[in-house]
Every structure is written in structure tokens, then in C-alpha cells.
Design goal:
Layout (H helix, E strand, L loop, with lengths): L1 H14 L13 H13 L5 H34 L8 E8 L4 E9 L2 H14 L2 E10 L2 E10 L5 E8 L9 H20 L7 H4 L7 H14 L3 H6 L5 H4 L2 H5 L7 H22 L1
Antiparallel strand pairs: 1-2, 3-4, 4-5
């Protein structure tokens, strides 16, 4: 009797349905790669079908890399929004107009090392690299900044040209070096929407300019942001401003970087959620 009971329990346990382990999405890169391996091992494999599957795999990997890049950049932008980068290096100019002779300080600027001091640790934390290259262009120098997400390999480039800086009696070599440094600073600021304190009424007043407003409008469309975003940025409402363009134009210049990082973070989250559902 006891043996029969033991056999019955074993039978019940063996008949219980086994829940399948969760697997990757049907269109995820690992799944497509597994299918490719099966097709390759098939002696009757269709070459055209294999080519299509390889193309699909490359597209999925590229999209996955882009999502990883956007996520990492979004996190850096969010942290940069809380960092104040100031103009701390004076530009000195000699004057001799017959009535006055001496040295004046017309303005200050934030050198590349000041920007890099804040930016480099954030890049390392997210396994990203910002590198520069330059080449001659008509009338001056062209500098390219390349922001690359090292684990995924995805990168984006930003370009900026300028004529050689021959002010202050610089030699040709000094003019090229000065322009190169100038362009690297501006490329880094463009990539990460860095507004140095001292620009835009010392960051304490004024509203965003036309180019900044255009950037935010494009991001709003991608993020599908609504009135809550305008309220969060303490801008005028659609009703008061009369249009989205007019409302965006009332965002404070000091909040430009905050607005961009907020929208890019929303875009990255939406893209990641869409990829997961796919």
C-alpha cells in the first residue's frame, strides 16, 4: 500500500506541467543570432534568407547600441544640469591709442580644462569617450568631436569650423593652436548643451535664443511633451503665450541645459520601453 502511494505521488509530480523559462524577445539580437546559426548549419540553407537575417541582426544590434548611447548620454546630461561651470580665465589685451596705454581685461572664458574637469569623470562613469580631430578647411580649421559609447560602439559626431585666431600678434602655429582649443571648447559645449556661467546675462536673466528654442522644440516633438513640461520649466503656458513656439521662447537661458537633459531623458526612456515591448 505504501509503495503504491509513493508511486502515485511520483506520477502526479511527473504529470505537473513544467513552466517554460522566460526567453528573449522573438526579435532580439540573441534570438536572431541563434536563428542564423541554425540556418548556417542547415545544408539546404537559403543564401538570400541568410542575408536578410544577417541584415536584420545588424539593424537590431545598431538600434540596441543607439539606445545604450542615448541612455548613457541622458544620465550625463542630468548630472551636468547640477554642475556650475564658470568663466574663470581672463583674456588680456594691450591697448595703446595715444591717450591710454596698458592692459585691459575685456572678458573671461572657461578654458577646455575647466570644462573637462567636470565632464571627464561623468564620461568615465558611463564608459563614454569624447575625442577630437581636426583638419584644414576652406578659410580655417574644422574640428570634429566624437562622442562614443565604448561598450556598444555607437558614436555621434559634432563639427565646428573657424578661421585661425591671429589676434595678439600670434604666429601661424600659435594661431592654429588657439583656434583648435577654442573649437574643442565649443564642440564639447554643443554636444552636452553646456551653458557656461557668464553667458546669457551671467546665467541669471534673459531667455533662450532662437537656436536654443529650435533645439527644444524638436526635442519636445520627439518626447511628446505637453503643458506639464512648460510648467516644470516655469515658462508661459500655451494659453498665455498663444503658441508652443512663443511659450518655449520664454524659458530662461540659465535653464536651457536643464530643459534639454529633461527631454532627452524622456526620449531615452520612451525608446527603451518601446524596444522592450517589441
Amino acid at each position: 500500500m505504501e509503495n503504491q502511494t509513493r508511486r502515485t505521488r511520483k506520477t502526479e509530480q511527473s504529470e505537473r506541467p513544467v513552466e517554460p523559462l522566460p526567453g528573449p524577445a522573438s526579435d532580439s539580437p540573441p534570438t536572431v543570432l541563434a536563428l542564423i546559426e541554425r540556418v548556417v548549419l542547415d545544408p539546404h540553407a537559403d543564401v538570400e534568407k541568410l542575408d536578410r537575417m544577417m541584415a536584420m541582426y545588424e539593424r537590431l544590434k545598431a538600434k540596441e547600441a543607439e539606445l545604450a548611447f542615448n541612455g548613457a548620454k541622458g544620465r550625463i546630461l542630468k548630472k551636468l544640469a547640477g554642475i556650475k561651470i564658470v568663466k574663470n580665465r581672463p583674456v588680456l589685451s594691450d591697448i595703446d591709442n595715444g591717450k591710454q596705454r596698458g592692459t585691459v581685461e575685456p572678458f573671461k572664458y572657461a578654458p577646455l580644462e575647466e570644462i573637462d574637469k567636470h565632464l571627464r569623470p561623468l564620461l568615465a562613469e558611463e564608459q563614454m569617450d569624447l575625442s577630437y580631430s581636426d583638419e584644414p578647411c576652406e578659410g580655417g580649421i574644422l574640428v570634429r568631436g566624437r562622442l562614443k559609447h565604448l561598450p556598444s560602439g555607437h558614436y555621434e559626431d559634432s563639427f565646428m569650423p573657424a578661421p585661425p585666431d591671429t589676434t595678439g600678434g600670434k604666429s601661424n602655429v600659435q594661431a592654429v593652436g588657439s583656434t583648435n582649443s577654442f573649437l574643442r571648447r565649443y564642440v564639447a559645449c554643443n554636444i552636452f548643451n553646456i551653458v557656461v556661467v557668464g553667458d546669457d546675462d551671467d546665467g541669471n536673466g534673459g531667455t533662450i535664443d532662437e537656436a536654443q528654442a529650435k533645439t527644444i522644440l524638436e526635442l519636445i516633438k520627439k518626447a511628446k511633451a505637453g503643458p506639464k513640461f512648460l510648467k516644470y520649466m516655469r515658462a508661459e503656458s500655451l494659453e498665455d503665450a498663444g503658441s508652443l513656439e512663443a511659450a518655449v521662447a520664454t524659458i530662461a537661458a540659465r535653464d536651457y541645459r536643464k530643459a534639454v537633459s529633461t527631454l532627452e531623458e524622456q526620449i531615452a526612456k520612451a525608446e527603451a520601453g518601446h524596444a522592450h515591448l517589441s
